[in-house]
Every structure is written in C-alpha cells, then in structure tokens.
What we know:
Elements: E1 39-45, H1 49-59, E2 68-72, H2 79-86, E3 91-94, H3 103-110, E4 115-119, E5 123-125, H4 129-139, E6 143-152, E7 157-158, H5 160-166, E8 189-192, H6 193-198, H7 211-221, E9 225-236, H8 246-263, H9 266-280, H10 284-302, H11 309-318
Parallel strand pairs: 1-2, 1-4, 2-3, 6-9
Antiparallel strand pairs: 4-8, 5-9, 6-7, 6-8
Helix pairs in contact: 1-2, 8-9, 8-10, 9-10
Amino acid sequence: MADGDRGSARAGDGRNASGLVRATAPLNGGRPGRERADVTVVIATRDRRDQLLRTLGRLCELPERPPIIVVDNASRDGGPDAVRRRFPEVRVVELPANRGACARNVGVRRAGTPYVAFSDDDSWWEAGALDTAARALDAHPRLALLVGRIRLAPDGRPDPVSRKMGTAPLGREDDLPGPSVLGFPACGAVVRRDAFLAVGGFDDLLFFGGEETLLALDLAAGDRGLAYLDTVHAWHDPHGAGHQSPERWALQQRNDVLVTWMRLSPGRTAARTWRLARAAVTDPAARGALTALLRRLPAALARRRRVPRALEKQIAVLHELQ
C-alpha cells in the first residue's frame, strides 16, 4: 500500500477499522485459519549484511510468514542486493543517507498491516510469537505497544531488561494483557501502526540510542497502553554484548538528557544536565556528549511538550533518565 493511501473504513470493502486493507487470501503466506497478515516485520540496518541474511533466514521460516520490510541506511557492503538475491519475497527500501532509528518509521509507513514488529539485523521472533502478539493487540484496543520477552542467543537466557519488566515495577492495568511498561528494546516490540504514526514514530533528533524512551512517553501521554507479555518471545544475538564503547555511551547520555529537555520538568532537566556538565570537566566522553547536546538543544526546546506528572513519577520509579 502506498504511503498515505489508507482511506476510511467502509462496511463491506475489506478494510478494517484502521482503514487498512484485509486480504482475502493470506499476504505473504499468512497464518493458518486467518484471512489476513496481521503483522509486518520491519528491520532497519546498515553495513551488517551477514547478520541481516542470517536473521532473514530465520524470519522467513516463521509459520506466520509475515511480510518483511528491510530499510537500509545507505549501506556500503552490498546488503540490499544480497537480500534481493536470496530473499526475493522481502521488500527492500534503500535510503540515500543514514537515518538511524528513524529508518524504522519508513518501514512502518510502508506496512500494509495493522501491527508492526521490529527486528534488528541480529534479532528475530520465535515461531508463534507474532500470532500471539496480534491476538493480544486485537483483544486489547488501548494497547499501542507490546514488549515481548527477549532471549539471548545462544542459550536462551532472558535479557536483563525482560527480567525487570517481568517484576511489574509499574503494576498492571486491568485493560492490558501484562505488566505496564514505560520503555522497551525495539527488537522486542510490536506496535499498533496507527498509534505509532499518530505520535510521529521515532524522533529524528535522537538519531539512535534512547529513541524508545521518548516514543514510550509520547504514547503513554496520549493514554495509550504499553505492556510486557512474556508469552511473546524474541531472540537477540548482539555483537559485542556488554562492551559499550565511549562513543556509544556518549550518544546515550546525550539522548537521555535531550529527552528530559523535551518531556520532563525543569527541575529534573536542570539536575540531569548539571550531572553531565560536571562529568564533562574530567571525562572526554561526557564532554563530547555535552557538546553534542548543546548543538541540538534549540531543536529540543522547539519540540518540548511536558508529560503529565504521573508519568514523571513512573520514570522515577524505574530510575530512568537519572
């Protein structure tokens, strides 16, 4: 379906309530017993051809046979052509420049299903997971984002983030299928497409790193539900897990502070900025983060929309953006 070509829902024309066409035959295979493909998998990638091909091999074997869209961030390793040769059923979108996490937005806009699951080029969904996720989203209309349990390859141990979510630090809401969350790893998330697009998707000011927190805040501020469901499983095989480079740390710090400027109270924002500035006196990585923050601060202020105080309290409970 072309971008923006969704129309309005009309009785008998094969569209669902979101205006998305329901196929009379399974899309890209579909799931047994269902008339339509419910979930599209979107992958953003750059210069990781071998990992991407392994991931696509796993995704294309899923019994749900979801439509798959790969959005390539101007790779230089021949990845797009390799995908077309080995997986002709996968749709490849090549971007002229690296757009970071916002490449996922491109894939979501091109998806023709009501729900979109994200994978990284080193992550994939377990058989049946997308079916379970779709049914949960069908049954809970306020649910905008579902986070599955992430298992780490090769032994399947749970990711620490999943373990934390499973303890339900924010409690549970009656109209959601699992514990409430206010943040998520993108490689374990399934979103309701129209809700994702309504808040603008991932913000291009952040580029990469911490983009999930801002999206979660924006969804929750609009009274959209976010929940963890441990019966939905994704696998992740991260390269260099546990070893964060100074550059990656600086990027995360910059983005965490940018999010406070865009959404949190002046007091919390000032305290978080002061901590980074104090660290910058002796730490080169912190100094780089602060410099990058200051360059983006005017744009962040132009996008400032403070979230309700209740959400700020939840952020404090989770010890996020500290």
